[in-house]
Write a structure and sequence with these properties.
By secondary structure, the chain is mainly α. The protein has a domain of 55 residues. It is built from 2 helices and no strands. The protein is elongated and about 65 Å long.
């Protein structure tokens, strides 16, 4: 049975990495939301000038869904790289 190396700092490293990722993700969502709403406002000013709550909701849904899918794909690619190679026995 393999020994567990307590005190290696792996748990702390994972916790700090997760904290940093989610903190940065919150800022990314806020900045992308600001950009998307600014573009939407410019388009509405050039168009009929009547803002739509449904359009803003769809912008938020699209933004969050896209970031979630990108995170899942990235985690999947990282996980695939961490798996040991299969041997052809």
């Amino acid at each position: 049975m393999p020994r567990y190396g307590e005190g290696t700092g792996t748990g702390l490293l994972v916790a700090l990495g997760s904290f940093a990722f989610y903190a940065i993700l919150a800022w990314i969502v806020a900045i992308l939301f600001w950009i998307a709403i600014s573009i939407y406002a410019i388009v509405e000013i050039a168009g009929d000038g009547v803002p739509s709550a449904m359009a803003v909701t769809l912008i938020v849904m699209l933004l969050v869904t896209t970031l979630a899918v990108l995170a899942a794909v990235g985690i999947g690619l990282l996980g695939k790289g961490l798996l040991p190679a299969k041997r052809g026995d």
